[in-house]
Amino acid sequence: MSDRHTDVTMTARFSAVECSLKDVLDRIGDKWSILVVAALAREPVRFRALQRSIDGISQRMLTLTLQRLERDGLLTRTVIDMRPPRVEYALTATGQSLTIPLRSLADWAEEHRGTITASRAAWDSQHSS
Amino acid sequence: MSDRHTDVTMTARFSAVECSLKDVLDRIGDKWSILVVAALAREPVRFRALQRSIDGISQRMLTLTLQRLERDGLLTRTVIDMRPPRVEYALTATGQSLTIPLRSLADWAEEHRGTITASRAAWDSQHSS
DNA sequence: CGGCATCCGCCGGGATACTG
DNA sequence: CAGTATCCCGGCGGATGCCG
């Protein structure tokens, strides 16, 4: 009985987690959002600087990604009126809070990168027949 | 000098993080990998049970995702010889370790879901002109 | 049940050109 | 510099059918 009750509870909690994960993935699970948030983690950055710091992102995708993140309240867009035009992007408190789990993910990647690469090599050589 | 040195160090560390993030996103940044890992977090699960528990995944994508995750050493595939066929998928130690940062992400989503939804609604009403 | 093979639609996203 | 507008392609991924 006790075991069973525990299991039901944990199953419910697990379902909730899975649902949350799907939510977060729908929001920031695209190709660039996470990288943009990471690039803004330390300080506000201007548009071109962002584009230079995020390897491989196109102007179009940077614009779209920034707009979505602003819509979700993860960052703010500030126009400083001068010539040439100057627009700064900065994380909101919510956006800043996201950098904490992102850091965990990055740390995980750092730690297991070697293992994963090795596993791939082993798998590939074994399935090359 | 001291400030400058600190800044250079942090910039380097930041670049490393960004690189790690790109790595992890290239591996598990697709539409389903994270959800599959989450679905296996508690215990080994069979193919059909997985498909039922992950809402919306097709047979094809489940197969492909499982193969990639096995190749990366995040899970194991075990065939139990009986009728009807029975195949169990289970996380490896590496895969299990990934559930920790994933849990952080899910918790973040849980905590900020309301804020984000509200921000979206506000943005949408303001840009409906 | 647990797959694999094939076909195909869609859209994410790159390239390019143009504006303020 | 900081975008917007268009065009267009590749491949992700869904649907379907077949096999051990």
Automatic annotation (TrEMBL), chains A, B:
The keyword Transcription applies. It holds the Pfam family HxlR. Keywords: DNA-binding, Transcription, Transcription regulation. SUPFAM superfamilies: Winged helix' DNA-binding domain. The keyword Transcription applies. One of its GO terms (molecular function) is DNA binding. Residues 19-117 form the HTH hxlR-type domain. InterPro entries: HTH_HxlR (IPR002577), WH-like_DNA-bd_sf (IPR036388), WH_DNA-bd_sf (IPR036390). This is Putative HTH-type transcriptional regulator YybR.
